[in-house]
Write a structure and sequence with these properties.
By secondary structure, the protein is mainly beta. About 5% of the residues lie in helices and about 50% in strands.
């Protein structure tokens, strides 16, 4: 009887010790050590983080990523994986991977026939919950391939100068095939030496926002046999064929939503939807292409222009409307994530980061500001500036600790009387190291 009581008393202690041991299986990998061995060890324990130390990690065989693994660098752009071999740098260990995150890494490879950057593909069981954040992939033969996957996030990445000359029109910076619900944001896909900035086929619910596709050998961004193809607030210029294309291999892409894009100086058509495509095309600026707009009858088109003197990549907003924080035209340093209050919010906001919102109409008089925010830090501020990062300061909104990173509160302040249309800069400052706040939305009032 005494033994049973003792066992009952000790059980919570044993569980706590076991849990701490599981958490302790996260691995730090120094340069020269085996990345694969660390992944295997963490995987056996049920998953966790494998962090690569700052420096250059040389590999001569592919790294096989596994479920429930976060493979990350020690800081922004300080951890580099490099190979001189004709190999793919990161590949899947098996079909049906779940909960894989790769972040804060730079990958350099070879622009050769069999080489690649990140290839997470499956022809049988789909992968699920794949996230690439702050990952740069340069000079690999086949860039980044995600094939056979659900719930994919690619954010704040740069996949550029990828491709190989043995695969003209086929080796892209990014290829999404048989992917279902994908969000690509705040990323760059430039100067593929052989094919597209982004290529998409046989997919559903693809969303591309605030990205850049410039100087690619073939096309800027193309989707074939896809249902749900949103492209907004993107810059698509100087590509070797079509800028923005709804295409077909077997069936034409449908349910497109193209808005607020600048599509310029592409060698062939600018914005092109093949016959049979359906959806909307609004508020775009396509100019300097061989044919600026070539849209099928199923496309509803409005407010599109062809004018090189106007920047329409971000449409203006009324200051006294609710402005979603993630709808910035450009930013430095932040990320975007799902919000507990529905929709999305900006996150990972550090001292010196900023967001820019073009063409904000303050009307004849605006004198107050409110923000919906969350913070678990102290000493942060939002500087509200006009027309440049060091422009006129019309107000400073102090950020208080709300009690958690998804516990939201609304902060209101008075600002200097403001009128007219301006580019709005929200500049984030603070004494804490690391994240300062999350921002859901903001608005002004008169």
């Amino acid at each position: 009887m005494l033994k049973k009581k003792l066992a009952k008393l000790l059980l919570p202690v044993i569980l706590i010790i076991f849990a701490s041991q599981v958490g302790a299986t996260d691995k730090m990998v120094a340069t020269g050590q085996s990345i694969q061995q660390a992944i295997d060890d963490v995987s056996v324990s049920g998953g966790g983080a494998v962090t690569l130390s700052s420096g250059v990690h040389i590999i001569d065989k592919p790294i096989k990523i596994k479920s429930n693994i976060t493979l990350c660098g020690q800081g922004k752009n300080t951890s580099i994986i490099k190979t001189t071999k004709d190999i793919k740098i990161i590949i899947q260990a098996d079909s049906g991977l779940e909960n894989v995150t790769i972040e804060n890494l730079e990958l350099f490879g070879c622009p050769t026939k069999n080489a690649g950057g990140i290839h997470i593909t499956s022809r049988t069981k789909n992968h699920e919950n794949i996230k690439l954040s702050r990952v740069n992939v340069y000079e690999t033969g086949w860039g980044v391939h995600i094939k056979g996957a659900k719930n994919v996030i690619i954010e704040n990445c740069n996949f550029s100068r990828n491709g190989n000359l043995d695969s003209l029109k086929y080796a892209h910076n990014l290829y999404l095939r048989r992917c279902y619900t994908v969000y690509v944001s705040n990323s760059i896909f430039d100067n593929s030496i052989s094919a597209n900035g982004i290529n998409i086929s046989y997919s559903t619910d693809i969303n591309i926002d605030k990205c850049q596709m410039q100087g690619n050998y073939f096309r800027g961004i193309r989707a074939a046999d896809t249902k749900g193809f949103t492209v907004k607030n993107c810059i698509i210029t100087g590509n070797g064929d079509v800028g923005l294309l709804a295409n077909s291999e077997k069936t034409v892409t449908t349910d497109i939503n193209w808005q607020n894009n600048r599509v310029a100086n592409n060698k062939n058509k600018g914005i092109y939807a093949r016959p049979g495509a359906t959806g909307t095309c609004t508020n775009n600026n396509s100019y300097g292409n061989s044919n600026d707009y070539n849209l099928s009858k199923g496309i509803t088109s409005s407010n599109n222009i062809s004018d090189s003197t106007k920047d329409i990549c971000c449409i203006g907003k009324n200051a006294q409307s609710k402005i979603e924080a993630e709808d910035c035209c450009r930013h430095s340093g932040i990320k975007i994530e799902k919000c507990s209050e529905n929709g999305q919010n900006t996150t990972d906001i550090n001292n010196g980061d900023y967001c820019v919102y073009h063409k904000i109409d303050f009307g004849t008089l605006t004198n107050s500001f409110q923000a919906r925010l969350a913070s678990n830090a102290t000493g942060a501020n939002i500087e509200i500036r006009l027309d440049s990062i060091k422009g006129k300061l019309i107000g400073t909104c102090p950020v208080t600790n709300t009690g958690g990173w998804q516990k939201w509160g609304t902060k209101s302040i008075n600002i200097t009387d403001t009128s007219g249309t301006h580019d709005l800069y929200l500049v984030f400052t603070g004494s804490d190291t690391g994240s300062l706040l999350k921002l859901n939305w903001f608005s002004f009032a008169g």
